[in-house]
Write the structure tokens for this entry.
Amino acid sequence: MKQRISICLLLAALLVLVVAPMSAQNVVELRITWYDDGNEGAVLRDLLDRFEADNPDIKVVIDTVAYTVILEQLPIQIQAGEGPDMARITNFPGLSGFYLDLRPYLPDVEYWEASFPEIVFQAMRTGDDTTGIYGYPTQFTVTGPFINRTLFEQAGIEVPSDTRDSVSWEEWTEVTRQVAEATDTPYAIAMDRTGHRFAGPAMSMGATYFDADGNITIDSPGFRAMAEILFGWHSEGITPAEVWLGSGGSYAAAADFFINGQLVMYMSGSWQVGRFSKDIGDAFDWEVVPNPTGPGGSTGMPGGAALMAIGSTKHPEAVARVMDYLVQVDQMREFTARTLFIPGHLGLGEVDYETELPAAKQALNAFAAEVPKLQEQAFRLNFHPQNFVVFNETRDRLTQVMLGELTLDEAIERIQQAVDDAVAAARQ
């Protein structure tokens, strides 16, 4: 009897050893390349843990990288066929043609089409493609300025937008300089090092990025006026030089200066709300003010990020299952509420954001109020196939002007030439 039991146990053990590897081999591992502005990676991980519990045949690994990797290295990997299965991308028009069309694998295509703006899907397509579904917006963003209200109060200086609807960039520059001087704050005003962040202020100064035929044009009085304002911040030493002049030719943010109380006014965007809620909290009173007004009106830039399915994946059905799970209303609502983002999904209704911080609620409402003010050209530029050529060239050439390597005339000529070359190449 003992011998029979031992044999049975041995056979059971051997069966486990045989079956376990087979089960492991049947599990599909997918990888997402992801970047964080705040806590969104942790929220995504929670959602995927639930997905994996209900779908044990799929395991999803999140590879979190710096945003500069998304901009500079990820496109090279994807174009070489060595990309991940999915990736969180902001320049989704720039990689059109390298995505996986999810449409054949989705159980309810009509749900996807009704849940997201068609203009976003269009930005992901290339050529004559009018039907492809390659990903979805994880959130929308709006650019606009943050202020440190505590510094204004300490300086005894009124926040100009408290009493006036129209406040120009010149006025904000002067008043933030006064606040910085009165409070011994190192810097008055700053803008992220990116042409995307520059574009909204330039439009407010009267810049026109498209001619009558729809071609991108750079040289306009408004573009020049905003460039001169930016140059002035640097020549006067009222902005942290490290952001535009010390970033080694890459995107750079001024967020750390604002978080550390070293900056009075910071031109960035709605994606910072989650991070500021965590890293500033109530250490000082921070809030969002309306985009400044100029000859061109008052406008920021729309934007956002999208989770894209990459065409080189070996597991298209599994990718579609993961993404279809993430876009359902319950998952999208939780992601939006916990990350403090403007929702990318059209069907969420009012979102009950998970924050008791008054500054976060004020900021989200303020950014939402900026959406109706966004200029039509702001949408056209943000979703144009050559948008990042405009943004990157603007960033780099204006930096060269500040370094004394180019004149503004030369910088504008080079930006325009780079855009024209990119448009011509896309037509071949």
